[in-house]
Amino acid sequence: MMPELRVLYFEDLSVGMSETLSKTIAASDVVGFAEITGDRNPIHLSEHFAARTPFGTRIAHGLYTAGLISAVLGTRLPGPGAIYISQSLNFRAPVRIGDTVDVTVEVAELVPERRRARLTCTCAVGGETVLDGEALVKVPTKAEADPIAARKG
């Protein structure tokens, strides 16, 4: 899953624009996330341990699921050059290995004087929201991205 890059500048954004990404969670994703972060909670890594929890099976790290939001923000909406300011997260339900997570990011508000975009973020599995929240990002303008072209035009 490597989303194709799409560059959008602040001037390209409008309220209601959205982008969706889908990712099926593999056991190797969960193990890799544990290795990178050091979060080796057995609910993520041990089927024996997880079987005795309310979930009954291994689940993905919540922040791995949240990281899929970052993939949308950094590659598609708004895309390269966007800078995370903040992110709120509400964990609603577990994500299990083998689940396909559909991540939707939508422009909720634009703040032109600060070049900020407020985006609603939702992760769903089979139509059920498993995570939601809001992101605030700084989005470059065309002039900031290419100051020489901006002076010519």
Automatic annotation (TrEMBL):
Annotated Pfam families: MaoC_dehydratas
Q: Name one GO molecular function term.
A: (3R)-hydroxyacyl-[acyl-carrier-protein] dehydratase activity
Task: Give every MaoC-like domain span.
Answer: 21-109
Provide the protein name: Acyl dehydratase
Give the record's keywords alphabetically: Lyase
| Coiled coil (UniProt feature) | none
Query: SUPFAM superfamilies annotated for this entry?
Result: Thioesterase/thiol ester dehydrase-isomerase
Highest taxon above the source species: Bacteria
- Cellular component, GO annotation: fatty acid synthase complex
- Gene Ontology biological process terms in this record: fatty acid biosynthetic process
